[in-house]
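Can anyone check this?
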Amino acid sequence: MTADEPFFECDTCSHPGWYAGLSESPKCPKCGRDPVRYRDRDTVYCYVHRAAMTSHYITTSEFLVTTYVWQGHQHQFPNAKLYVVSEPGTNPADRISLLNCEQCETALRAWLKDHVDYS
């Protein structure tokens, strides 16, 4: 494995990431799960959709202590806008920028429509 291959990242465990080819099944060496995203040269891609992620959203550390209805299902849309979006006026030191995949976002909206009753 070399730096010429894509660099994969796992959000499930604390593994720092690894290089692997896209033709193999690049499971995390630590926890054995599929990666969430990978970087090839200067572009970050959604592993699920193999789509370049060019847009992002801002959240805060509050997302770490918030319970979400999709918990346990995020592997279906790992790069959607999953976390609370930051309110205007948020302390700049607490702003966290996350990339998102439009196809994951579409899958999340469909999942919410099928599984959450907003009435």
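Reply from J.R.: I decoded it. DSSP finds one helix and seven strands in the chain.
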